[in-house]
Amino acid sequence: MTLPSIANPDLATLFDNKPRWNLPDHRRSGFHNLHTTMRYAMSLRAPGVLPFRKEVDWTIGERPGVARYLAMPHFSAFVVVRGERILYEAYAPDFGPERPHPIMSITKTTLNLMLGRAVADGLVNLDARVGTYLPEIGTGYAEATVKAVADMNVANDFSEDYSDPYAAVYDEDSALGWRLPLDGQKEGTTRSFICGITGGDLANRTGEVLYKSTNSDVLGWIIERVSGRALRDWLIEIIEAAGIEGCFHITCDREGVPLVCGGACLSARDLARYGLLFARKGEGVDGRRVGDAAFIEETRRNPGPPLLKPRDWVRYSRQTNTDGTFLGHGGFGGQYMLANPDTGTVVVYFSVLENNSAMDSDFTGPLVKMMAELAAQC
Length: 378
What we know:
single chain, 4-stranded antiparallel sheet, Beta-lactamase
């Protein structure tokens, strides 16, 4: 006797080539529960917690730019910290300080810390070809330099246009466990997917960033290969240095490879604790250190290509965004984390955009400017 089953409704593709959790009508609930929705995941906790104390500056919430973003229907959480002090925090009625939230592509910033350490230890040469470290990689990456991959400066056939429901980025979802494979499609893995990406002339001739999340998974694979250490071990080291209080959840593929391009979920306070690693240039709790201070400074001073207009005042650099002062990154759906090493301030904003693409540069551009100004002044 064979017992029948039905496709898991959260992960089944319904329309617009998206699973239910990522459709606009379900996305807020999908985001707020993503750490339990994905097929494969791991959770990490730190043995020691960086303690926070509240010293609230109510004038922060009265700033017009801040008040505007806290009033938006997309809003989930907002936190401003400096050192061990919470200067301001606010949450949506359906969210709270202990709730984990997807940080999506903010996860990529972990690679700045990993790559910085690998470069400082002489394990990676930024000018070397990717194929030097990953001889099995496909034509979409083999001849690109590690630096070009880190700076989102590679041209290949992978498309991350979220406004196109049939862009390659959505094909990747089934390899990541973010949706079920389509009928007749075999479930792949992160690394089988990136090995299948093709390309010819990989030089970016656009003069602006060519954003591809697969770049981050390539870097993660290189770091694991040259160090002989699993990405899980690198992540544990980062989480322990940050001293996060709750769980750091990260989705994986079927082989257990962490989705370093965008799979992490954690609370707003814990993302602020993590951001403080950049504000302190790698210094963590209890004498722990991650990344490399010189590499972090070089990330700010010698960035890669500019982002697309109207955010071309920000440049992409070694898996972060920078304007020469702050280090940060955004995430699918409306997230942003920004750290200012000059002031020691970190600002975190969570939201869930409910338009078709879950992306909006008119929303994100002013948000980043508001956060950068706040971090510079606090």
